[in-house]
């Protein structure tokens, strides 16, 4: 039996797993993503997380058939590098992630875009199994997307599915990518946190940061947002409502272009908020649909928080 590792590298957390041939999770670990330093600091956390997951599964990392890593930013799979990862600390130039991590773990490393690997997991193992064509929307620190057409991920020339950079407002808010009006500038957790901090400095009342500190966090995680909403925080509700409307507009535009059968919502915020917010996003998309009497199915991702790590592990199968 061959064991494989999978790592989902996000803006706030690292999920590492070890799975068997049947995709059963044998060991799992979660660590916080470093907020300071640079690529070497992140790689150290990746290695430590996978080592802990392997120990929980009772295997050595060097005995694994390989480890897949789903990462945000620009992935060059052939070169094994990651660059322009805006939601990771000081990660802009290409960095040899595969070689550095492989040296620490003693096994080969396969890299993939974080959202694409999570959507591939949903296609193979989750909510996309019965839908040959669908749009995956990963709502988290940023907003990621991936498109499956006729049972295969559509890569285009290498950057297909960048839903977070669909423009939802002409000359709108500045996005981390440097452009204006992107969906991510309105719906990404990171962008909403920046807006919340500014609002608090401007005197707007909010419980968001009190909840954050109480839970020992340094950022407004999905759990902090969920708690604030339950407590009726008006600023949190305003920002989340705006995010839902922006998601609806972007998704509606993509559906008009591709006419996919389904939209699957995942990611840190998408998974945390679940089906009630999937329905809210569907309602927000409805006014933008050109063929309004035949909307796609809107579904919550089935694989939960480990979907990204499971998809990363599939990268090892992909290369054999």
At a glance:
This protein is α/β, with parallel strands linked by helices. It is 41% helix and 19% strand.
How is this structure best described in words?
The chain is α/β, with parallel strands linked by helices. It folds into 2 domains: about 5-115 and about 305-320, ATPase, nucleotide binding domain (Nucleotidyltransferase, domain 5); about 130-300, Nucleotidyltransferase, domain 5 (2-Layer Sandwich). It has helices at about 40-55, 95-105, 115-125, 185, 190-200, 210-215, 220-230, 235-260, 265-285, 305-320, and strands spanning about 5-10, 15-20, 25-30, 65-70, 75, 80-85, 110-115, 135-140, 145-150, 150-155, 260-265, 295-300. It has a 5-stranded mixed beta sheet. A 5-stranded mixed beta sheet has the order 10-9-8-11-12, sandwiched between helices. A two-stranded antiparallel ribbon has the order 5-6. Helix 5 (about 190-200) runs antiparallel to helix 8 (about 235-260) and helix 6 (about 210-215) crosses helix 7 (about 220-230).
């Amino acid at each position: 039996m061959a064991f494989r590792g999978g790592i989902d590298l996000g803006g706030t957390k690292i999920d590492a797993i070890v799975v068997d041939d049947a995709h059963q999770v044998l060991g799992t670990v979660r660590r916080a993503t470093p907020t300071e330093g640079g690529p070497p600091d992140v790689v150290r956390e990746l290695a430590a997380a996978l080592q802990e997951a392997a120990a929980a599964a009772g295997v050595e990392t060097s005995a694994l058939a390989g480890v897949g890593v789903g990462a945000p930013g620009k992935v060059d799979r052939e070169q094994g590098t990651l660059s322009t990862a805006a939601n990771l600390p000081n990660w802009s130039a290409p960095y040899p992630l595969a070689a550095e991590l492989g040296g620490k773990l003693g096994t080969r490393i396969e890299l993939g875009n974080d959202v694409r690997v999570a959507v591939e997991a949903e296609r193979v193992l989750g909510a996309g199994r019965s839908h040959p064509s669908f749009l995956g929307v990963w709502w988290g620190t940023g907003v990621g997307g991936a498109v499956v057409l006729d049972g295969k991920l559509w890569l285009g020339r290498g950057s297909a599915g960048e839903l977070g950079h669909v423009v939802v407002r002409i000359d709108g808010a500045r996005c981390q990518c440097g452009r204006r009006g992107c969906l991510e500038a309105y719906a990404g957790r990171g962008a909403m946190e920046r807006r919340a901090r500014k609002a608090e400095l401007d005197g707007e009342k909010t419980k968001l940061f009190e909840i954050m500190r109480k839970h020992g966090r340094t950022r407004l995680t999905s759990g902090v947002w969920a708690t604030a909403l339950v407590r009726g925080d008006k600023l949190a509700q305003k920002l989340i409502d705006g995010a839902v409307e922006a998601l609806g507009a972007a998704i509606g535009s993509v559906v008009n272009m591709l006419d996919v059968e389904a939209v699957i919502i995942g990611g840190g915020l998408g998974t945390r908020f679940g089906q009630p917010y999937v329905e809210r996003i569907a309602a927000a998309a409805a006014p933008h649909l050109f063929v309004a009497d035949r909307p796609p199915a809107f579904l919550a991702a089935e694989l939960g928080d480990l979907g990204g790590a499971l998809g990363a592990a599939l990268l090892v199968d992909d290369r054999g």
